[in-house]
Amino acid sequence: RKEAVRVVVTGAAGQISYSLLPLIANGAMFGPDQDVILHLLEVEFVLPALQGVVMELEDGSYPLLKDIVATSDANVAFKDADFAILVGAFPRKDGMERADLLSKNAGIFKVQGQALDKVAKKSVKVLVVGNPANTNCLLAQHFAPSIPKENFTALTRLDHNRAKGQVAKKLGVSVRDVHNVIIWGNHSSTQYPDTTVGHVVVNGEKKSIRDAVNDNKYLEGDFISTVQKRGAAIIAARKFSSAMSAANAIVDHIRDWVLGTPEGEYVSMAVPSDGSYDIPEGVIYSYPVTCKNGKYTIVQGLTVSEFSRGKMVATYEELADEKKAALEQLQ
Ligand code: NAI
C-alpha cells in the first residue's frame, strides 16, 4: 500500500468540514487506494465539539482513514502535512468593518503560514477556502517563504461548478456536457464567470456555449450576476452559507490537482498570478488551468474580448486593494 497522506483541515468543527471530512475519509478526494491521516485544527474553545466530529469519524468505519489528530495547536496540526485545506476563518459579523475582517483574518493566516513554513512538508499543497480566500491565501504564502509559491491556491471551483450548473440548466443538458467555463479573479462578487471559450456537447455534437445558448444578453448579464451572487442567495435561503457544495468543490479542486484533469478540460483555480493575461504578479487570481502529474498549468493563448478584459481588470483591482489593506493590518 502507498504511504498514508496527511491532510490538514482547519475549521474542522464547522459546517463545511462536516460535509468535507466524510468525503476525504471515503476516498472521494484521493481515490480508493490512498490511506489518509486527518489533522483537524480548531480554536481551543471549539475542541469539545471537535471531539464529537472525531467520534463520528471513528464511527464511520472508513477503511481508508488511518488516524486522526485533533488539536488547537497549529504546529501540531501542520506537522509533516502533505495537504492543508484552510477552511477556518473569522466570520463577518453584522456591522463589522472590512478592515476589521481583514485584520482578524490576517492574524489567523499569518500564524498558519508560519506554522506551515516551520513544520509542514516542503511539498505541501495548500488550498485556502476561508474568506476572503484569495487574500488569506496570499498571506499564508507570504509567511511561508520556504514552500514553493505555486503550492498556494484558493478555492474558486465552487464558482466554476455554479457556472457550469447555470449553463446546463439553461440548455436543459447535463453538467457532464458543459465544458471549459472559466472563473477569472477573486472569489467575491467581482469574479468574472466567462463562457466565451466554453462548449457543450449535445448528441455528440460540439457547439460553443455562445451558439448553443444564443442569448449574449443573458450570458453577459443575468448569467454573470447569478453566479456572482449565488453565495448570497444560498445564505438568504438557508440562513447558513453554502457548505455541501463548498465541500464538493474542495474535493474537485484537490482531486484534479493531484490526479489530473481530463484531456482538453479546463478547471478554475485561484493561483499566484504570473503575468498571464496581463494580470500583474503578486495576487492570487483565478485562472483556467489544466492539471497533470500533480501540477497545474495556466491555460495560455485564449482570446480575451474587450468586455472580458474590463471584468478581468476590475476583479484584479479588488484583489490589489485587498492585498494593500491586509498588509497594512499587519504593520
Ligand atoms: P463555520 O463558521 O461553520 O466554521 C468555521 C470554523 O472555523 C469554526 O468552527 C471556527 O471555530 C473555526 N475557526 C475559526 N478560526 C480558526 C482558526 N484560527 N483555526 C482553526 N479553526 C478556526 O463556517 P463554514 O460555513 O464552514 O465556512 C468556513 C469559511 O469558508 C468561511 O470563511 C466562509 O466564508 C468560507 N467559504 C468559502 C467558499 C469558497 O468558495 N471559497 C465557499 C463557502 C464558504
Automatic annotation (TrEMBL):
CDD domains: MDH_cytoplasmic_cytosolic. Residues 156-328 form the Lactate/malate dehydrogenase C-terminal domain. The keyword Nucleus does not apply. Gene3D superfamilies: Lactate dehydrogenase/glycoside hydrolase, family 4, C-terminal, NAD(P)-binding Rossmann-like Domain. It is an enzyme of class 1 (oxidoreductase). Keywords: NAD, Oxidoreductase, Tricarboxylic acid cycle. Residues 5-152 form the Lactate/malate dehydrogenase N-terminal domain. NAD(+) binds at residues 105, 129-131. Its EC number is 1.1.1.37. The active site is at 187 (proton acceptor). It comes from the Eukaryota. InterPro entries: L-lactate/malate_DH, Lactate/malate_DH_C, Lactate/malate_DH_N, Lactate_DH/Glyco_Ohase_4_C, Malate_DH_AS, Malate_DH_NAD-dep_euk, Malate_DH_type2, NAD(P)-bd_dom_sf. Substrate binds at residues 92, 98, 131, 162. PROSITE patterns: MDH (PS00068). GO terms for molecular function: L-malate dehydrogenase (NAD+) activity. It catalyses: (S)-malate + NAD(+) = oxaloacetate + NADH + H(+). GO terms for biological process: malate metabolic process; tricarboxylic acid cycle. Belongs to the LDH/MDH superfamily. MDH type 2 family. This is Malate dehydrogenase.
